[in-house]
Structures are given as C-alpha cells and as structure tokens.
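Feature request, filed as a ticket because there's no other form

It would be nice if the structure record came with a short human-readable summary line next to the tokens. Right now we just get the raw output. Example of a typical job, pasted below so the devs can see what we mean:
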Amino acid sequence: MRKALIVLACFLFVTNILCARSLDKAFQLLPRPQSIEVLSGKGVMHTDLKFVSAAPGTPVPVLGALTDVLPRAGRAGKGLYLQLSGQNVPDSPEGYVLEVNDKGVTVTARTEAGLFYGCQTLEQLLEDSRDFGREIPRMRITDYPAIAYRAVHLDTKHHLDRMDYYYRMVDRLARYKVNAVIWELEDKLRFTRRPEVAAPNAISKQEMQALCRYAKERNVEISPLVQGLGHAGFILKHHWELRENPASDWEFCPSDPRTYEVQFDLYLDALEAMPYGKYLHVGGDEITAIGIDDRCKATGKTAFELQMIWLKKVCRFAVEHGRTPIFWDDMPLKYAGIWELALSDKSEEEVAEVWNTGKLDKAIDLFPKECVYMRWKYEDATTPAHRRLLKWYHDKGLKVMGATAASAGDSPFLPRRNTRSEYVKGFSRLVADNQLEGILATAWDDGSPHLETVWRGFIAQGEFGWNPSARDIEAFKKAHAQREYGFRPEDNRMEFLDELEKAIFFFDGALVTSGRRNPAWGATAFTLLELPDKTKPGAWSELYKDKIAQAKIEADRYKKISEGIRTAEAEALRNRYTLRVYEKTNNLQNYPVRLILALNAYDTAVDDATRKAALAEVAEVCDYFDVMRSNLESVYSETRFMEQPEGFISDLNHHNHLASKTNNSDWWYYYEIPMVKKVRAWMK
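Raw output as currently delivered:
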C-alpha cells in the first residue's frame, strides 16, 4: 500500500507540473492541490451554478458563502453534485476529486471530510472567478493531504479574544484545510472542579463545548493543553503547598499526591469542555527545579526520574479517559545532554563527532510508549542534528509530532521573517517525509501579539501541512495576498508587510542603551537614552549618531509602509480589519523614530528660533503618543480584551512576561511611557 501511494504521488506530482501551467494565474488555490489537470472544453463562471445536489446517502457538508446560498432542490442549469464513493478517489479520508465541466461541478470523496475540503476548494475557484471575471476551466483536481494532523496552537495565557472571533477563526482555519487546534488554556477556562484556578473572565465549559461542536462540523478538532509539571503559575499562585520551590509558582512537586489530584481535576474539566478532541497535551517542558524539596529528596530519585514518573502518571490518566497524551520533549533531551546540540546548526561532520544518545538509550524504559513526543524546534528544523534526533525517536519506536512556530513569543507586535513561513514549510516537509504523527504551528502568547499579525503563519501551516512541496515562500506570499485580500500576485500589494517586519527590529530597542523587552526571554531593567544638553549643542547627536542614522532610514521605510497600507486598504476585497491592525502597528513602531529625530533637530539647532521650533516639535511628538496609543487600542480592541479582569493575580516566576505585569495595556509601551515622561520633565 505504501509503495502504491508513493507511485501515485509521483505520478500526480509529474501530472501537476505538466498540467498546471495551463491554469490561468487568476486562480490561486491555497493550499495548492496535489494535482490539477486542465482539460479542453467549457467550464463554468461563478454565476452558473444554480443548485446543490447530493447523491442518495451523501450528506451535504457545511458549505462556504458562495455555495451555501444555492438551493438543494434540483432545477434547470448547472449544479454542484456531491457524492461519496470508494472508487477512483484518493485513499485519504480527507481526499477528494473535483471535476468541472459544462454541466457543473462534481465533488467525489470517501468521507464527508473529503467532500467538505472539495467544496472549500470550489469556494476559492468561485471567488477568483467572481473577483477577476474569469471562467473556471474544465478541470480535474485530485487532492489529499501530505500530513493527516495539521494543527495550530492557540495560547490564551495573557489575553482573550471575543468568542465570535474564535468562531470566525474556525471558519478561516477550515478554509485553508487546517484540521486541528491545540488550545493552551491556562486560567482561561472556567474550571468547575477547581474554580479558584479560573480567571474572572474565563470561558465557560458550555461556551467551549459549543465552539468545539461548531469546529467539528467544519472538520476542525479542538484538543486541550493543560500545563502540568512546569509553566504552572496559573495554578500554583493559588496552591502554594504544591510548589517545588516556595519562591516560585513555576513547578509542581511531582512527589506530592495532591499534585495529581489538582492536575487530574483540571484535565477532566478540559476534556469535558473539549469533548471531540483526540489528544490531551500535558505540557511538561522547561522545568528548572525538580528534586530540590524534601518531598522529592525523600524518594531518592533523580530529577530526570521524577520527571518521567510524573509523565507516566499523567499519560496513564489520558489513556484511561480516551485521549492520546502529548508531551513537550525538551526535558529528557536536556537531562541527556544533547539539547543544545539538537538546536544547533552544526554541519553533519561536526554533529557526527559529538553525537551521543547513550543516556537516552539507557533510560528508554522510562519513556511511555502511549505518549506522543512533541519535537519542538521553532527555527530551521532541517538541520543535521535535528534529523538525527528524529531518527533516534523512529528507531526507538516512539511516536513523534512536530511543532514549529507561527509566533515564537519574541515580540508583542508581530512575528518576523515572512511570518516564519519558511520554518513552517521546512518542518512540514520533515513531518511528511518521516511520516510523523502530525504538525503543530505554535503561536505563543508570551508577547501577546494581535492574532491578526500571526495569521499568515497559520495559513502557511495550512499550505505546507497539506502540500509541503507545492510552492516556495515568495509564491506562497502572493497566493496568500490573493486569498486573504483579493490582490493579484503581480501587484505586490503586501510588500509593505516585508518592510514592517524589518522596521520592528529597530523599534525593539530604539529608546534604550541597555535592557530587554523581548518577552520570550524575559524582560529586564533598562536604561533610557540620555537627553540633549542645551549647553553642549551637538554632543547628544554625536553620542547617538548610529541611532539617528538608522532612524532616518526607518523614517523613509515608514512612509513606504504607510503608502503600501493605504493602497492595500483601498484595493482590498476583504479582510480590511487585518490591514488596519498593521496600520496601527506601523504607527507605533514609528513612534521612537519620530522622537529621536525631533530630539536630534533640537540638539543641532543653529539659533534660538530654530531651537524653539524644534522643542515645540518634541512636545508635539510627546502629545502624539497618547493619540497613537488610543487609536491602536481602539482597533485592537475590536476583537480582543485589552485589560486583565478585576481580581487578576500576576505570575511570580522567572519568565517575567510583561503581559502579566500590569492589568492594563501599559506593558506594551515598556520603554515609550517612561521615555515620554522623561522628555516632558526635561522640557520643563
């Protein structure tokens, strides 16, 4: 069977190359189907379909906006025909064949899921036909996913969005054939067995059940992630007695039986809230202090053994309750001394000299076989060391799922590097080639960026999880622009986003000489820029000449981005809200640029009149901060809640995420608020 599938895939790949050239570029399907065969003859326009007809015993799946309006009763004209069949269709339960001819469109699949995805592809064809006035050619699409489980990660550690946003999110994921969500709940579920853990604004179990049913109807499976041994601040801020380290709410003590009483109660609530998921993700990563308290010392076990004892217990619980457990895999690798090597980009020769899995081999009996080990690597996953690690898992018969990142948590405002899509593509290709359990695109809330800025990464997971080899990154970005906004690829309407991703790098540290607000690595104390001395004209500009030079470059970049966004907003056929989020983000990243250049103008003023005018500009920039902030938060708050609820308790651990340090949105402006205060005091 496997050999036959490989032969079929090769045949379809060659057919795709030969035939896709004749498909009008006005049609940009995302994800790219495995095979598109354009045939001679008459096709259909988006206005031609008059009805939906399902063969006997064939259910009609949830349809998109352009097909759901069609009546289900047969009538004269061209129709959409749906049928279930095990003949001449891909073996995949999500596979389908879509045929367009002068009689209409036929979608054939083995299952309702396949029908659903065939209809989603048709929806995109109809959309392009409508948007660009083109006939959908007579064609045959044969399609199926390269990876069966294609998930994104929803992390609500530091913020919640409105419930209607999550419903729209499900629709959007389904459109791009993402079929799963792993939802990291933290305190955002209203736990009934342990109500003290839930945040005051938590989602009720009934609300979550309703959302999960809605998702299931659209072939999206939602499973919970309830952090276990570490990352437990949301629990241990209420349960000091279960801390391994009394000074930190980071880790549970794995040797206290009450640990499991609390964790299992939270698991049960999460499973009831998300009743259709296959998995229970138990967390278990980034432990720092296991084995240090008296309860653990009394066991005589090593930290590694204690970690794996915990893992076996929680895995047993998951299996007993009908779920497959997932575990972040970094801790065994750290204990075995190969973590840093696995993350490295060393050459094959360099890796071969030092690669040693002896400690892992010796401890293999400690690894639960029923567990899926989530192999997370958020940069390039195709390195030699990482490939060796995947082979070790395979050789030991352990189940592995890949975890890449659409947002790695390192920015409050937006991911960089083409929304990390090249990393998504690379890991997806590895998962497909090695037949791993699936792929997850994480979206860490450490920096709590607006989810609209993460969506291109989520959509990349849809593209490359379904078909890892279909497009290169530039082609994907153009297809994304068409699908999301209706922009033709040749117009390059989203070029501004490449520039915006570059601009954020200067913003990160523009107003300081030391310090860090990178949330993925923990914020630190910082030192703001000094301010000009009137008695020493030009000295300030000499001191900060490099920042000033870069600020001038960024000022020009800002103008280019602004013009690009204005054009995009005017030309977009849909999703203008995303563009507005980018617009306000662009204004924020430009704020330090404006302030630095205004101070430079004051410092280099040639006379009192010029200096007075420059000082007025500095004052105007300071006043603009409040306007800019208000405008940004007004747009952001259309979908997300901007403040922590009354009664929220901040975390107490080494991660020091800014988003948990203030109950309002001040944390977003970690440098800007004190800098404006400093400048205003200086002006007096």
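Something like this underneath would help us a lot:
DSSP finds 23 helices and 16 strands in the chain.
Residues 608-636 form the longest helix (29 residues).
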